[in-house]
Amino acid sequence: MINEVKNAVLTILNKNNYGYISPSDFNLLAENAQMEIYQEYYSSYNKTINGENSRISGTDYADISRQLVETMESFLVSDFIIPKPTASGSLTNVFYEPSDITTGNSAYMISKIIVYTNRLTQGVNNGHSTNNLIDSTANFQLLGVKVGDIVVNLSTFKSSAVDSFTSTIGTINLQDDIFKNVANGEKYAIYSFSTYSEAEKVLNSKILMLQNSLLTAPSLIYPAYSSTGNTFNLYPTTIQGYGAVKADYFRHPKPPKWTYVTLGGGEPVFDQSQPDFQDFELPKEDQFKIVTKMLEYCGITIREIEVSQFGAAEQSREQPSFSVQQ
Fold first, then answer.
1. In the beta sheet, which residues pair with residue 268?
2. Domain-wise residue ranges, the chain
3. Could you tell me if 255 and 278 are in contact, meaning their C-beta atoms sit under 8 angstroms apart?
4. Angle 23-53/287-301 helices, nearest 10 degrees?
5. pLDDT digits (tens, 9 = 90+) for 46-93
6. Distance, CA of 209 to CA of 235 (rounded, Å)
7. Cβ(315)–Cβ(296) under 8 Å?
8. CB neighbours (10 Å) of residue 303?
9. pLDDT at 44
10. Positions in the chain whose pLDDT score sits under 70
11. 45 Cβ partners below 8 Å, 6+ apart?
């Protein structure tokens, strides 16, 4: 879709020789346009819900909220979050929030925090076979491990699930190959997938009062968390270690990047085979809105008020888009 958007924008700009947008400028404006439209999903969803409550919203094929939810949920991911150790390396109840560095995705909005409260066992992987966990000192079935339980690599912060048991004691099949370092061994832990609780978000101003209460103090059955900077503090403080806490969150869309090869004459030609290529992550229905949004930005960049006015005017009209403002 990104090449279609670029061609449409350049065609409109070049019609009256308004100017040319370089690939680097296009990518920068495309990122801003995508993010602005993405943020509109949430405000539009709020408006459609208010419309449903006021009985002025449609149903069946006119159910805009369902379409919005499907689009928004395409950005919903679930990741185990990484614990933040102390200077000495010991674990605490502090975890990093999802980001490009920690989980590979930057969180736009947290949906829920899940705490897995039953750690079945832990140890060291002392062998290697693809998609297997091997610990010759463990009998996983006697330890209560079942198919579907969560296996985490405490050394590399990778996770998988138990797929099946082998005939060899001390070996279980995993859905993913997360143990690869044969030489040094890798620490692991296994959590029961069926024993978990949803943590409640508590403001920092109230968490101390909550902890000191005999009736409402957080427990493994009713855990809580608060946010400080780029970290989450989980309560009770016994909640520690990778694999104990999972975050369901809406991620930021990845920045689009129009990639190209340069011909002898200096003309860039679209090439999506480049390793850093990234298409728009918004649905095809929003292509028209992306084009008009980018025209508005381009008009400001090349100092042509007519282009900006055209883009703004098109956006004010009813669009074939899930993120149209109600």
1. 262
2. 2-73+253-316, 76-117+195-251, 119-191
3. yes
4. 130
5. 777 766 666 666 666 556 677 778 888 889 999 999 999 888 878 889
6. 13
7. yes
8. 10
9. 77
10. 15-20, 50-64, 182-183, 264-265, 299-326
11. 65, 68, 69, 72
Give just the sign of the alpha carbon dihedral 270, 276, 282, 284: positive
Q: What pLDDT score was predicted for residue 295? A: 80
Instruction: Write out the chain in H/E/C secondary structure.
Output: CHHHHHHHHHHHHHHCCCCCCCHHHHHHHHHHHHHHHHHHHHHHHHHHHHHHHCCCCCCHHHCHHHHHHHHHHCCEEEEECCECCCCCCCCCCEEECCCCCCCCCCEEEEEEEEEECCEEEEEEECCCCCCEEECCCCCCCCCCCCCCCEEEECCCCEEEEEEEECCCCCEEEECCCCCCCCCCCEEEEEECCCCEEEEEECCHHHHHHHHCCCCCCCCCCCCEEEEECCEEEEECCCCCCCCCEEEEEEECCCCCECCEEECCCCCEEECCCCCCCECCCCCHHHHHHHHHHHHHHHHHHCCCHHHHHHHHHHHHCCCCCCCCCC
Residue 208 near residue 140 (C-beta atoms within 8 A): no
What does the alpha-carbon distance between residue 73 and residue 171 come to, in Å, rounded to a whole number? 36
* Architecture per CATH, 119-191: Beta Barrel (2.40)
Give the CA distances from residue 21 to residues 5, 85, 194, 310, in Å, rounded to whole numbers and listed in that order.
Answer: 13, 46, 54, 17
Residue from 225, 275, 267, 268 nearest 95 by CA: 225
What is the per-residue pLDDT for 225? Answer: 92
Any idea what the Cα angle at residue 141 is, between residues 136 and 144, rounded to 5°? 120
pTM (2 decimals)?
0.77
Task: Write down the residue that tokens 């400080």 correspond to.
Answer: 228
When computed from its CA atoms, the radius of gyration of the chain, rounded to whole angstroms, is: 25
Q: How far apart are CA 295 and CA 314, in angstroms?
A: 10
Strands 224-228 and 196-201: parallel
Structure tokens at 162: 């138990």
